[in-house]
Amino acid sequence: MRYATSFLALALLAPSLAQAAGGPSHSLTVQERAYIRAHLREYLAEKELHHGRAPAPEDVVAAPPEFGPLEGVSFAYTQFPELVTQLATEVSKNAKAFLAVDGDSEEQSAKAALQAAGANMDNVAFDQVHVDSIWMRDYGPNIVANKKGERFVVDLRYNRPRPSDDAYPQKFAAARNLPCYSPPLILPGGNLILDGHGVAIMTRMVFDGDEGCDPNLSTEALSQYFKDYFACTKVILLKPMKNDGTGHADMFCKLVNDTTFIVGEYAKAEDGSEDNKQTLDDNAALLANETNGQGQKFRVIRMPMPAFDSGVSRTYTNSLTVNDTVLVPQYGIPMDQQALDIYKTALPGAKVVGFDCSQIISENGAIHCITHEFNAAPHTTISLNGLNLQGF
């Protein structure tokens, strides 16, 4: 009864968190943090009850990277509709845009906005499903495949007490007749980078109970989950930044292809909160001495980070790669153009497009945080602008 009572308290908590600005912040809210600290055991038990523990899938092949061929990208329309419309319109040019909308009224609003923006509506699909927040990266479906080339969803547990968000991957999978597996692992997608060759990269936030993760998780168990569900043979752990609102790798780090990392860099120690300049320098050095799943050393390119200001960490690595296009945050400052140029140098021939994220970044997130890729099926070919992209 104790857990049942706590589960009811959680269900009642979620609506109150969604009243401001159309939904909760990317960070844990004050109420959520207080709830988890006071009821950690119950919170962890609720995750177990919500997801269950089905056996791991069989014959898993290496999970695909974000920079590989994509069938589409998932969004939630619940917050920042203007930015979501702009991003989904760009995505629709060379992939599908899947939008979670809360009923007929929101679907019609989204459809009208996308049509007015010039989206390719043949590449837009709507899922009428309620979610708690816009932060699709952290709770969205991870696509993996088996040796037969069959895709399935890996549903990682969301490190927030937001039940509707946490349920989304199962609903996405069911709507597309995809099997869904859920390891007993609390890990937000913004803190997961995959190289496509069996290596997973994340920060040590994955062990932080104060961030809604499981403080009882061991490095051995973490590695086993990635082996069983993602066919990963190595996990690289980075230091999280301080006071960025999330502790996620995507706030300072971007893998743009299977051998190239872009890692944030503060010009001066005082530009970063606390010791974040040293943290990023240490992470860059660690990655430069690491190898991908094929034994190739990573190349590290540094990306200037705007100075920490008024509690906000602005980031250019919180970008999204969609086939031949890279969507990059912009903040209306001179450094914006330098960020675009670095992407163009790192990815010759790619289309690099900037989007104003000066409002959403105050909620501690940008483009990567509100999107989640739907990887193309294995052994398939996507013809795009004269290019033939092979599925993983």
Sequence-ordered SSE layout with sheet pairings:
Blueprint: H1 2-17, H2 30-38, H3 40-51, E1 70-76, H4 81-91, E2 96-101, H5 104-117, E3 124-128, H6 136-139, E4 142-145, E5 151-154, H7 163-175, E6 180-181, E7 193-194, E8 199-203, H8 219-230, E9 234-238, E10 253-257, E11 260-265, H9 276-288, E12 299-304, E13 320-322, E14 325-330, H10 335-346, E15 351-356, E16 372-375, E17 381-384, E18 387-390
Helix pairs in contact: 1-3, 2-3, 4-5
Structure notes:
The chain is built from ten helices and 18 strands. It is an alpha/beta fold and 392 residues long. The chain has a single domain, classed as L-arginine/glycine Amidinotransferase, Chain A (5-stranded Propeller). The strands form six sheets. Strands 3-2-1-16 form a four-stranded mixed β-sheet. Strands 4-5-6 form a three-stranded mixed β-sheet. A hairpin with a 2-residue loop joins strand 10 and strand 11. 48% of the residues are buried. The N terminus is likely disordered.
The biggest beta sheet reads: 4 strands, mixed
Whole-number mean pLDDT: 92
**Structural class per helix/strand content?**
alpha/beta
Radius of gyration over all CA atoms, rounded: 20 Å
Outline: globular
Number of helices: 10
Spatially, the strands of the biggest sheet line up as: 3-2-1-16
State the distance separating the first and last CA atoms. 46 Å
User: Under the CATH scheme, which class?
Assistant: Alpha Beta
Strand content: 15-25%
CATH superfamily: L-arginine/glycine Amidinotransferase, Chain A
Question: What is the helix fraction of residues, given as a range?
Answer: 25-40%
Order of helices and strands: HHHEHEHEHEEHEEEHEEEHEEEHEEEE
